[in-house]
Amino acid sequence: MTRDGVPVTLAVSAFDCLVYLVEHRERPVGKDELISAVWGRADVSENLLAQTIVRLRRALGDGGDEQRCIKTMSRVGYRWVADTTIVSNATNDTAEQASVRIEGAQTKAGAVAAMRRPWLRRALWIAPLLILAAALGYWRWQTDHRKPIFFSQGTSIVLPADVDAPEDWKWLQLGLMDLIAGDLRQARVPVESSQAVLDLLNQTNATDSSRFASFALVIHPHVTLADNLWRVHLDANSPDGRTWQAESSSDNVLNATRSANDLLLAQMGITTEPGKPAASDAKEEYLMRIDAASYAGSADAVRELLDKAPPDLRETPEFGYAKAVFHCNQGEYEACKLGLADLLQRLPADKYPVLRGRTLAQQWYIYFREHKYAEGEAVLSEAVQLLQKQKDTGYLAFAYAQLAELEILDGKFDQAASDFGLARVNYTLAGDTAGAYGVDESLAYLSMQRGQFAQALPIIQRAYEQYQRMGMRQFLPDLLQDMVTSRRMLLQYTDELAVTDRYWPFEQKHWEVPENVMRHLLVFERAHALADNGRTTEGSKLLEQLLEEIKLDPKGEPGLQGCVETLLAKLALQRGDIPVSLDWISKTLSGKLLEWDSDKHDYADAWLTNVIVTQRTGTPEDVKRAVAAMQTWVATLSGDDDWIAILLLRAQAAGAWSQGQRDQALSQLKLAMNKADKLGVPELMVDVGQVYAQALVTVGKVDDAAAVSGQLSAWSQLDWRAAWTQACVYRALGQTSSWEQYRQKARELAGDRVLPEDASVWMY
Fold first, then answer.
1. Rg (CA), the chain
2. Which of 110, 392, 438, 498 is least enclosed by beta carbons within 10 angstroms?
3. Which alpha helices (H) appear in 68-147, and where do they start and end?
4. What is the pLDDT of residues 55-94, one digit of tens each?
5. pTM for the whole thing?
6. From residue 594, how far is each of 461, 517, 555, 576 by CA, in Å?
């Protein structure tokens, strides 16, 4: 690292703090999270962390109270706040070789390349210790390979077993896969979840497992039954090309598997826990059958196994847990609730700390369904405490992630960001890369909920690239939708349409989206992107086709249907087709949008559209009633929401304007503009600003209108509303040349929309 061209020496722990803070600059990083990330354990004092931050600030020239680089976040931790850009030192650099430039503290590409390569940094936390142990064991075992074992993606993968046995033993294919993965976790080896591995294998064109070798230690079990003797053979391949083999035989397949796994780990220098129980118990085998059926996605088979379980197994808490989780996963709310409640009565924390912690982590679903977020946070906090003590990183990550989700619903955004960070740490410790990337997706969603779309985009893009690299195509549609929405909110319409080009048309791009809801959402985003690029007629046709598909779906998707009808109403209004617009918005408000668990912002948008259309078609009293209906709906919501407050102020201003109360309307629009400016979402700023500026022009306050127009000028080359506002202000100022220039730009951006000559007509 250099400052003003002079090399700066940093301790390893200080540099790791720098790496972690810069990588997660989109959010505050909690103290506990940072300690876990850098030192890999929880017994490090906050005083040591504070001293490390002081040394780091000194090295960065970030002294005094300015905190230009690392800002202390009260009651949370620290956040990197310096302007940071990703640069490439050569034209042929890959994305992973890109470096990071920090304004005021420039770092050499070679040193900071690790920041952009998360699996090559110290963020493996506990994993380096395991890797070191493996390297030492291997050095003693085979002296001709001195290079230490290193998982470049920090994880291992266990493939389904090849089973040469009668048909009734085929469950071993997935059962042994999960058994080996579980034993690896007990040995503190990061390992991908069995479900994630199966998802990877099920993706299109995933004909073999060779592509996993680039990022994981791959273990492939082979099982043979001959003369009542089970032979288990394990093949392992590391990313650096080395191989290991281990084999064991027994009259019990589970014992043979565990013995082979212990031998394999021993070859790599990884010591398994002493005193591990033999797997001769029929109860364990039966539970493994249940797990195998679950991984295979056969709910009927799981249900049959649960119903036919032996009486002695039914009394065990392990069986009770498996049954309750099954009901929860199937959405069988009452059975899930009763099963978890009964189980918690039988699981004292001193005797069953792990199982109780996992049960509490599952119980969040009940409180989520009942909208009892505080109670949900309480049980998840207890789960975190238990699982922390037991170092059950996989479920601890799950508990932190669900806790963060509830905190979002409770409006505790800063705490949610911190807990998502802790979830990511623990998913990485567990080797669950799919879980870690899922947290990235949740962090992006959190940023979007806060209106921070510019911060969300790089997180979304990173998660998209990571999922794509691992072949996890099933997670890409959600990220594509978030990417499209973020581009739209930032008024990046060309990029928005380009994102939809990645999957459209589905047939030509080979996008298989089996879930109807997600497929319909992607079609909706495509239509919206077309309209945003001035192709409203084309977008409307696609939306009408989508409505026909939705109506054929047994589930109906009323929430999406309402969004489609609202957008159709807005597009018809922009083309000047008022009767069609009125028809569409009437269908929206007479449907089941409110009954559906829709995004409340979508419903607020529907109410506002209704007010705008009513203003164009009805009497002042009709507008007044439309505004009152929206106010009544807003009053039913809990908590404050600036986004909805802005839309309501726009509606109230429309009502006041219709009543001839111009000053009141201008006051409400000014307040809406201030709120939009504070929130910082370009879409909202332009949407409110063009209305406010045109209203000011209408009443003769041209200088004030020019000031508002100036706020929108940054987007006048991107958005037709901003360009049209500029044009109207210049016309009012008598600047004919500028009026013509921006009117032409507005026409170009508007596409097939209708732009009237009278600015006041388009106020709402």
1. 29
2. 110
3. 109-112, 127-141
4. 788 777 776 566 788 888 766 688 888 877 655 443 333 3
5. 0.64
6. 32, 18, 16, 28
